[in-house]
Amino acid sequence: MTNFLYAVEVMINGLMAGVLYALVALGFVLIFKASGIFNYAQGVLALFAALTLVGLQEGQIPFAHLINATLGTELHHFGWHMPALLAILLTVGVMILLAIAIERFILKHLVNQEPIILFMATIGLAYFLEGLGDIMWGADIKTLDVGLPQGGSMWIEEKTAVLGGDGFYGFFIDRLDIVAALVAAVLVISLTVFSQYSKQGRALRAVADDHQAALSVGISLRFIWVLVWSIAGFVALVAGIMWGAKSGVQFSLSLIALKALPVLMLGGFTSIPGAIVGGLIIGVGEKLFEFTIGPMIGGATENWFAYVLALVFLVFRPQGLFGEKIIERV
Amino acid sequence: MKLKLASVALGALLAASPALADLVFPDLSYRTGPYAAGGIPFSDGYQDYFTLMNERDGGIGGVKARVLECETAYNTEKGVECYEATKGEGALIYQPLSTGITYQLIPKVEADGIPLHTMGYGRTSAANGKVFEWVFNYPANYWDGASVAINYLLDANGGDLSGKKITLLYHNSAYGKEPIRTLEDLAQKHGYALTAIPVDHPGQEQKSQWLQIRRERPDYVIMWGWGVMNQVAIQEAANIRFPMENFIGNWWAGAEHDVAPAGAAADGYKALNMNRIGDLPVFDDIRTYVADKGMAAGDGSNIGKVLYTRGMYAAMLAVEAAKTAQEIHGTPDITAAMMRDGMEALVMDAAKMEALGAAGIGPEFGVTCADHGGSGMGIVQQWNASEGRWVALTDYIAPDDAIIAPLVEEDSMAYAAENNIAPRCE
């Protein structure tokens, strides 16, 4: 009985972890859905957004190291501590400016190019943004404090402890994960409604199908790209906050993209609900595998098992669970 | 005419005199990438100490030190590239701050005749100088660290760990796996139950591992982590309300940035350290001669921090070895081979450390032909979150050589057999 209860606990935590994976995957889906670009820079976008948020909140002077080295000054901070909400709003503003810059300096010049060219451009963007983040805000680890709760819920632990015997300590559920799940739910519902029912949402899908055809019916490709990169930037900020709250904001944050890839393979690159369902399946699958099989084979199975699970799904549904089936007739 | 002749004679004399070249110390640093937070303070400390030597003492034995910084991003391939790019400059010693890079460089330095110093990391059995002529890992290695942690726990439990449950949470890499054998052997000796739990790179997600720890309720958790794994582990430990005073990191999991993200929840977390923490007179000199002159490698904010101190200590050991080499060979202009001789004759005693303005920065030790590993001693420190500083809980603790020495002998001799190396120092 105790083992069964712990398996349930692992499953619940897998669902919660899956939500965090899905938050990263969402950014990929949005851009792929609207422009057919696999955005290699999505993980770095999350890092850049989180760095900017902490920098603004702490009143850090951007490019301080560069300014000091060039001018011999001793500038570091503005001397303020900004409220979290204001800092988040300003960061959203920075991500919109970044989206405009990406469109103006990269995407505008690549209209109607092969997807691989656009993909390569995002690789370059990833390296550029990582360097820019370093120069702007420094490479040290920053503590993210936007008031999110941390730690297991005592209430849940106490209420569920009675379910098992002496060796059962109640279900552990991190309060941060609960908040992340709520935020993800709101995001997915909003984005799905926007994508399916708004004029701009339909325009996004038209652009994804064919750049030139979309242009020919009067859709502003440039506006759509700015819009979608802005939304992806916002989603990256949310993912950066949730992950950064656990580890502090540091450059390894960009590696969270690795967690999104099997989710995308499983859920499909074009479906917003697919990102969530894919995330949940990967989260539960890898955690249960680690719980049941991991101890027999030395543990640390999660990273590779997520990909194996995604590959198994691909055998039966190459387009992913919710991806669009593309049939090209000769 | 006499003046002209004198000028020509002086010129000829100067031309004939052997020119004193710089003493070259490559710094294979990582200021970018996921491990930059640890690489930056170490490199700052390493470079600032050489700058201090130049600015305060006019160099080492009168010869200026020149640091060649090369960015590895903690990437093994880039580390090897950096080695190849800098060795031709007359490099005297390499300290790559990466176990992965160390393993790649061991055969190279043996072929090129350049000493490799891996302080508290790298290949542990390189402590056997009879096999590893060009590799040094004083003052302590991983196996020493594991043993120091167990000795500390023995002391805390009245010398008896039988029946206790100890979990090793380790980075799933060559580095993280290093202490397993030692801890297993020590478990047999002292009767504790050991569970080893791996965490895959980079360690951003550790929910499974900490749920397992919560289920199994070990008495102690020992962590062999690096990078983001440390910060996440400390936060997850706080999340499951694991008693922080029973959570001990190794010396690569005990810096200020490892505990800062968890805030007050990290209070009480412990870590090993191979060098002393706290203010030292040498830091004042670095501020005066280096930072205040705008010559610091960083912005000066890292001075005195754990990894800055360790980087500075690494440079200090290199400088003292260079001075020893200069004395042995009677020349200030030493080569890599002479540097190796200096390292093999290095003695760090209390008087020398005090004279350097760094009393007690490390344990007292002497290097010999057969022993490249030093004393293996380490301290245990504890994080005080309210004051935002590490506090030393112990003096230097000795490892269990009865366990460590046979392991070093076995592993190094296997390496010697594989590589047809005839043991020396007989």
Which terms summarize this structure?
heterodimer; A: 330 residues; mainly alpha; 13 helices; B: 426 residues; alpha/beta; Rossmann fold; 2 domains; two-stranded parallel sheet; globular; amino-acid transport (chain A); membrane (chain A); Amino acid/amide ABC transporter membrane protein 1 (HAAT family) (chain A)
Task: Return the average pLDDT of chain B rounded to an integer.
Answer: 94
Number of strands of chain A: 0
Q: Name the chain pair whose interface involves the most residues.
A: A-B, 48 and 40 residues
Structural class of chain B: alpha/beta
Classify the beta-strand content of chain A into a percent band: under 5%
First CA to last CA of chain B: what distance? Answer: 64 Å
Please tell me what the overall shape of chain B is: globular
Strand arrangement in the largest pleated sheet of chain B: 6-5-7-8-9-12-13
Query: How many H/I helices of chain B?
Result: 15
Oligomer: heterodimer
User: Would you state the CATH class of the largest domain in chain B?
Assistant: Alpha Beta
Q: Any idea of the CATH topology of the largest domain in chain B?
A: Rossmann fold
Structural class of chain A: mainly alpha
CATH second-level architecture of the largest domain in chain B: 3-Layer(aba) Sandwich
Question: What is the N-to-C order of secondary-structure elements of chain B (H for helix, E for strand)?
Answer: HEHEHHEEHEHHEHEHEHEHHHEHEEEH
Radius of gyration of chain B: 22 Å
How many domains of chain B? The number is 2
Sequence of secondary-structure elements of chain A: HHHHHHHHHHHHH
